[in-house]
Records
---
Amino acid sequence: MTSTLEGARQLVTRGTDLGARIEGLDDATQAARGRLDDDLVGEAQEVIDRAAGRLRLSARHTVVAIAGATGSGKSSTFNALTGLELSAVGVRRPTTSWASACVWGTDGADELLEWLGIPPRHQTTRDSMLDSGRRNAQSDLDGVVLLDLPDHDSTEVAHHLEVDRLVALADLLVWVLDPQKYADAAIHDRYLAPSAGHQDVMVVVLNHIDTVPEERRQSMLDDIRRLLDADGLDRVPVLAVSARQGTGIDELRAEIARRAADKQATSARIDADVRAVAARLAEESGSAPTRALSEGRVAALDEAFAEAAGVPVVVDAVERATRAKVGRATGWPIVGWLGGIRPDPSRRLDLDLGDDARQLSGRARSAVPEATQVQRARVDTEVRALADEVSAGLNRPWVDAVHRASVSRLDELGDRLDAALAATEVGASRTPAWAWLVRVVQWLLLAAAVVGLVWTGGLLGTGKLSDPDTPQVAGVALALVLLVGGLVLGILLGLVCRLGAAGVGRRRGELADQRLRTAVSEVSRELVVVPVDAELTAYTSVRSALDRVLG
Ligand SMILES: Nc1nc2c(ncn2[C@@H]2O[C@H](COP(=O)(O)OP(=O)(O)OP(=O)(O)O)[C@@H](O)[C@H]2O)c(=O)[nH]1
Ligand SMILES: [Mg+2]
């Protein structure tokens, strides 16, 4: 697409910003794909492709299509303009089944005719057939590719398709009406009114004017004018002609010649196409301002994710495991031995808190309980609330797109949270240095108590406990001081250090909580926030691109 657009841009050189508008439509279409109505996006893509296709071809030629109901006199008008009996004119309807073309000035026309899909057997070139008497009149139409189309209201499906295809490709449209059917709702509703955006590339012809009594002609023309105004085609000229008698044909030829000469029809037509489809995209897309995701919403989402990941459970285990570990290291050794029999809370979670295991092992996460239905439901609720908040006020397609995006990756939730937790260092393994120091002191105190015990036992056995020769401290035997002091200080130290252990546990718990939540919020960002943001970005792109197109 880029290369054809490139070509289109180079070809649109007459100081117009049509190239920029086609690019704008292209940007909007890319951003709208999969978000706005598929058919509409498809139509916009067709307009872009068609514009790029047409602009790559002869800028010298103007494709003029003659369209209208069967029997309105399209082929007769075609013949009158070419001055030749090229198209079969018939009384049996419909007569024309395939479009035929007459080309004035063949240079560069071949590619254009091929693009239009007119086979050579349905082409006539006017240069070679000029009869000298009409040379001037015919030369006026230099650069015109005149197309005689089948009827648009045909019972033949092939006719509709051919007409719709070529009407879309033509630079200028000549609509032929006849006195019987000019007011047909079918023509106005299906073709004329929807072409309101294309009125600068349209001409309406009332044919068979010879069959209308002179005095009724003006009122019939006024009537048509009124109907066209109601269709939104107030700038479209209406010409009365008789293809059979040649009345008004010179005026019609002059009108076509004038438009072909200023070479604006091609870009005007494309411009009308681009604007029309851009307006429909804008209508579907809406223009409400976007709102950014609020921090509170994202925080609530992170919280729900953290709950579902089992962060509080892990944090609690880290805290308790640290407390137990430091407590055991610093406690009175006898209590430590007894405590060793009690289960370590980290074991239950299978947290590997060994000295060299600095991370939660993969097994660790699988032992954290699976998210409960309640937790999972909370995640869903928060995701929906976030999508609701951020899409409020936008048009339906965008509300749907945001909701779709918000849940598009939620099936990865379990695996991603597992991985996030497994990769997070919770810092629970290390025993602090002071605890080792306390442990040494504890053993020294215990040793003192044991020495005191043995000594006291010996003194008691020999009855020398209160002997003044026995070493004393403040009048009490040193042996007793060692025994009682060692025991009391050891137990006291153990108790005081429990407070310290609780503090370390809390700090490590907080640290683990922080790190785990950072990891989890990374997951919620990637699975929910980023996809939602992508939709909002697409919405903004569509809006600003369409603003550029529609000015
Ligand atoms: N009186 C009169 N008859 C006309 C005029 N133009 C066309 N006719 C006749 O109307 C009939 C239909 O003309 P065509 O030119 O074949 O009409 P068409 O729109 O090409 O019809 P299809 O090819 O079937 O869509 C023929 O009998 C023509 O002779 C006109 O200006 N005045
Ligand atoms: Mg015909």
---
Amino acid sequence: MKSASKFEKIAARCWNLLNEGKPFTPIFITGTLILFNFDSLFNRQEAVSFGIAFLVIVPLLVIFYLYDFPLFLRNYLWLPLVAFTFLWQNTNLPLLLFAVCLYFFFTVFFWGTLYYHLRIGTSWLNFTRFWKLVLKNSDSTSGNAQEQLPKVMLILSVWNMVFQNHQSGDHLPLMEIGYFYVGLLVFTLILHHFLFDWKPIPYKEFTNGPKISPKGISNRVVVIVVDGMRKERFYEANTPFLDKLKENGTEYLNMETVYPARTVVCFTSMFSGTYSFEHGIKSNMVWKTGMRVESIFDSLRKVGKKGRLLAVAHLVDSMGDDVDTFTAVMHNDKADPVIMEHARRIMKEQDPELMVIQMIATDQTGHSRGVLYDEYIQKIEEADKLIEQFVEHLEIEEKMDDTTLIICADHGQADGIGGHGHLDEGERYVPFFMHGPAIEKGKKIQEKQSLVSLAPTIAYLLGAPYPSHSRGRVLTEAIIDKKEEKEIETTENHRFPASL
Ligand SMILES: [Zn+2]
């Protein structure tokens, strides 16, 4: 079975530069303006003007890098563009039209058709679906047309105006542009301060869980993360095996993911027990590899136990050598079966106490075909069968005795290109349930919980210390306290004969 090659790991990072909205904006704008002025840039003087004009737009790039105008805030991005047009009356329509065409060419054809065809075998006709998805998409990627287009148009307009003025020796309205930037910054700060108020609230304290017994509660924990499995779509799907686990275990009905709901951020939070501001992973684009805090894998090492994460190459950026990668370049119908096969081999060869598996087909179908179509439900149903076969296999191998099974998603997916990041409808609450001899049966927990609780809960189950910066709470209500049960048993034994 193929692991992700070194080339794939580098390619995945390069792709992230274009996939995450923040690095995409400056790259796309520079590319567009170079292409638009391709002829003139061979002239030295014009190239100098181009470079000087670029320096003028740097503050704009910084503002939009720091503030991405999530969800409905993106509607406000048109106002600065209108203000620019009104103030300078210097709108270059051919340039803006060229940028819009290039943007849809990149998202709909390059990404939605060519890229997905080559990587996961989607049809050459995927653009017939993908353009609709890009138009409504609301996440933090470059595929968010309603966020990217006004930003791109504004920055290109300023850059082009300064470039043309410098070239023709006209007065550069630097002072006015400076005031415009200050106005934009104030506008941005006000919007983000007063309107951006839907982020999940982090736990303020570090984990204050029950005392950990070195023996632990379970011999083993197996976590299966069905990447991007949206909660109500999971309920709609026909998943007899997962339903059985859910009904015979403990289900958390309001399990919340973290902000921003990007895969690498979510996984890092799930396995460190803390948030972006502390572990340092802020999006799928990881500039500095390795999380800044301890992970559950570090905790397990301290007590001589082993944890493995079987996942795509992106997760190496955060969790390094604790990850066994699989290649993400294969037909999407084959991806999950291949991953589960790989997982069986790891269980056999490495026999880890903690095994985490990321299943990617559901997420990939959501991204390439949308979550509101039947193909997405079908992938969830396939995941159900694969998990059933995997668990049966572990039972035969006698690896399920005293094993706790946890099934969850890292985030849901919104409409559009299965977007997730800013926490639109469908992203925030994820399926989450636990099953095993140490887990309460038929229990439903209504109270809101957070995915950061996964790491301390695993630590408690396996008798390892809580990771250094863990803030989540141990999900004790799901765990049968054997000692307490015995005590109750004995007191009852005493009581009954007495009352008889
Ligand atoms: Zn994900």
